[in-house]
Amino acid sequence: MRIWESETGTCRHILRTSGLSALSPKGNQIAISKWRERREVELWDVETGICVRRLSDGKGGITSFAYSPQGDQAVSGSEDHKVQLWDVETGECHHTMTGHAKFVLKVLYSPKGDCIASVGDDWTVRLWNVGSGVSKKISRQHSRAVTDLKYSPKRNQIASCSYDMTIRLWDAETGVCARTMAGHSRYVKNMSYSPQEDRLISCSEDKTVRVWDVECGTECFVLKHDDEVYDVEYSPKGDQIASASVNGTIRLWNTATGECQHTLIGHSGRVPVVTY
């Protein structure tokens, strides 16, 4: 696992671990899921590069992990179909929520932290109440596994993408699908809203990153990689896009021009996650 300086393109730290990751809201901690090897999540201190805690129930491997907006709680999804709530400081599991019929592939807190969204290999998008652990809404309009989801606080909206090559925009309160966007020619892996939430970027196994206008659902432009793209994210200022590829490279793009500013090279294998 490598931590990079986005302005210079230099590597800041190398963490001697690997896996699916999530960055805490304050940016001081990284969670790394070791679901295939040890069925646990490691919590690493960004400054020291030391693993400070491990989370596990000793059962299903954790396939997705997200911090609460405050950073003191976290939610995980697992291969045994569960959604679980954790105390980050103590490592204790507070709630276990069931309902998915297959692997849970992504979990996410709402901006206020009172709701959790989850998607999975059962083609569903589910909304959960954090306090009660009860499923509020269940939507099944994708026709393949749902791989990622993102919240838009300003629009009160959830975006989901799928192996069915589409992106869907949902009303976060009612669970109604408001728009379907199509353009990718292979599986859509991940997405990211711009800080202004007027744009959405998606990446795919078709070797492209696509920029979408959220209001009208049209495709603005396409950024091309040399290989499949696994993850993508906007910078906090919205002036840059980072994309990670199966060929081990990370590319930094100018959002105004679509120009590739840097290609970061250092990984010897695929890069499944990138974050600012």
Describe this structure in words.
The chain folds into two domains: 1-144, Methylamine Dehydrogenase, Chain H; 183-276, Thrombin, subunit H, CATH 2.40.10.480. The protein has strands at 2-4, 11-14, 20-23, 29-33, 41-45, 51-55, 62-67, 73-78, 83-87, 93-97, 104-109, 115-120, 125-129, 135-139, 146-152, 157-162, 166-171, 177-182, 188-193, 199-204, 208-213, 219-224, 229-234, 240-245, 249-254, 260-265. It is 0% helix and 52% strand. The relative contact order is 0.09. It is built from no helices and 26 strands. The strands form seven sheets. It has a four-stranded antiparallel β-sheet, with no helix packed on it. It is mostly beta strands and 276 residues long. A hairpin with a 3-residue loop joins strand 16 (157-162) and strand 17 (166-171).
Give the count of helical stretches: 0
Q: In which order are the strands of the major sheet placed?
A: 3-4-5-6
Helix and strand succession?
Answer: EEEEEEEEEEEEEEEEEEEEEEEEEE
CATH class of the largest domain: Mainly Beta
Tell how many strands the DSSP assignment holds. Answer: 26
Amount of beta strand: over 45%
Structural class: mainly beta
Weakly predicted, low-confidence segments: none
Termini separation comes to: 14 Å
